[in-house]
Amino acid sequence: MQRVNPGRAAKAGCKIKAMLEKSARSVLAMAVILGPATVSLCQTRPAPGAWVEARGVRIHVPLGWSYNDRLAAASGPISVNNFNGMYASGGLLPPAGAEIEITSLPAPPNLMEYIRKELRGAKIDSLQEMAAGDKSGIRATYFEEISQGASRKTVVSYIGHAGFLYKFYLSYWDGNRNEGALASLLDQVIKEAQLR
Predict the structure, then answer these.
(1) Angle formed at CA 38 by CA 179 and CA 102, multiple of 5 degrees
(2) Number of domains within the chain
(3) Could you write out the DSSP letters of every residue in 132-148?
(4) Dmax of the chain from CA atoms?
(5) Domain limits at 84?
(6) Is the pLDDT of residue 44 over 90?
(7) How far apart are CA 187 and CA 175, in angstroms?
(8) CA 189/CA 167 separation, integer angstroms
(9) Any idea what the Cα angle at residue 35 is, between residues 34 and 41, rounded to 5°?
(10) How much is the average pLDDT of 24-43?
(11) Domain check: are 48 and 109 in the same one?
(12) 85-135 pLDDT tens trace
């Protein structure tokens, strides 16, 4: 058995304590610099009635919502949300937050097979035909458990048009008290959407 020199152990303990204090100050400084535990994406809050276009889709940005202009400019999906891009820690939606993402791809030969593959692993609540204005397709509702008792609910509408599949995703926390209004908003966005 090795003997421990009490003086050396105390000296090492002081060094460890000093390192921990320095680390704590660094963490505190980073927290002050970075602010609260949120992730902010570059968002634009447009004038009422403004349009955003990407991936062959043009939509009205809902009143009070903002969109990620950099993502749209980079030919990414359209991403709009009601929380000005201020995601919670880990990139999660804030408690009352909701987002709509819209993208497109060449139409798959078998839509139902494509949907089953895309949603593999998700807890599917419903899969049914949908219509919004002159657009129709398939609507799926599914849940993703984030932690015990906390699930994100996503409603996705798959709409085929002119050889392309357009996907409109609405995501929010399960139990959101504005669920009905959010579903109506998604239908309005789809109804007004201009597809190439």
Answers:
(1) 45
(2) 2
(3) ETTEEEEEEEEEEEEET
(4) 84
(5) 38-195
(6) no
(7) 19
(8) 12
(9) 70
(10) 41
(11) yes
(12) 898 988 899 999 999 999 999 999 999 999 999 999 899 999 999 999 999
